[in-house]
Amino acid sequence: MINAYAALDAGGKLVPWQYEPGALGHDDVEIEVDYCGICHSDISMLNDEWGMSAYPLVAGHEVVGRISAVGSAVSQLEPGQVVGLGWHSDYCKTCSSCGSGDHNLCNSAQGTIIGRHGGFADKVRANAASVVPLPEGMDAKTAGPLFCGGITVFNPLVQFDVKPTDKVAVIGIGGLGHLALQFLRAWGCEVTAFTSSDSKMQEAKELGAHHCINSRSSSQIEQAAGRFDLLISTVNVNLDWNLYLSTLKAKGRLHFVGATLEPLDLGVFNLIMAQRSVSGSPVGSPATIAKMLEFAVQHDIRPVVETFKFAQINEALAHLKSGKARYRVVLER
What we know:
By secondary structure, this protein is α/β, with parallel strands linked by helices. The chain has 2 domains: 2-148 and 302-332, Quinone Oxidoreductase, Chain A, domain 1 (Alpha-Beta Complex), CATH 3.90.180.10; 150-280, NAD(P)-binding Rossmann-like Domain (Rossmann fold), CATH 3.40.50. The protein contains 11 helices and 17 strands. The protein has helices spanning 40-46, 96-99, 140-143, 149-159, 177-187, 198-207, 218-222, 241-245, 268-272, 286-298, 313-321, and strands spanning 2-7, 14-19, 28-38, 62-70, 82-85, 88-90, 110-111, 123-127, 131-133, 167-171, 190-195, 211-214, 228-233, 248-256, 277-280, 305-309, 328-332. Strands 3, 4, 5, 8, 9, 16 and 17 form a 7-stranded mixed beta sheet that branches. Helix 5 links the parallel strand 10 (167-171) and strand 11 (190-195). The longest helix has 13 residues, at 286-298. The two termini are 17 Å apart. 45% of the residues are buried.
């Protein structure tokens, strides 16, 4: 029996709930959950904002724990190993995306909290292919957010071959943005933070930003015209995207990792005349996650976290919803 905290309906408080997971699949592993980050995607799922939630719903997809059991066909993982689990819990392993190493783009990938139960529990199960061991020297307590927030901002650096000489700006310094600043600084880039919060400007510089621009000031943004090779947007609100596009160099890219739900209002000539691009990406493959973890250890990159006990899960969710979290919330056993 697995003991969890579940929402019984959309927007409802999480309550203790048990379920019987059945026999462990041949290719699956069971993880005893020691830590689990809380992501805004968990809140979206708990509230059924994306129309894909099924209740009772056990959220939690930034899991770190110890393997307690392995299926009969699993050879690369063993009981007692400290591992992490992110947004995906399985892949088809046969499509062209899986075959080329882009498992995160698999059309048949299974979400850890979509159609199955996640890490707000004492145990969670997943296909072994989606589970990544923590490298030696990584702090398990702060590692969970790397498996969603961390890989979300690290993956574009790999996908778009970002150079150490590039000038990169991050829009929004929160759960995603504070990690992007750290990765980009360690990558060697000249890093700029766009933030509307005066209190975050000094924090942004401590996290790796060389420069800060007030995102509420059109004049400051205009002064950055033609400066950046890459803009990474981590926000979920609509901004003046044409103004931000003007800050890109020729062949520059505006890349979305934050789920802005409103349609983008973009002037096509702003793209054409300077051959600019607009793109987006989800998390990353297990191989890229492993690469990110090694990079994080090498450069001592860690999510800034606030911790709550699992029994305080509703308090922790309320704290994240309030916007006061600095910068990720992690549940601990």
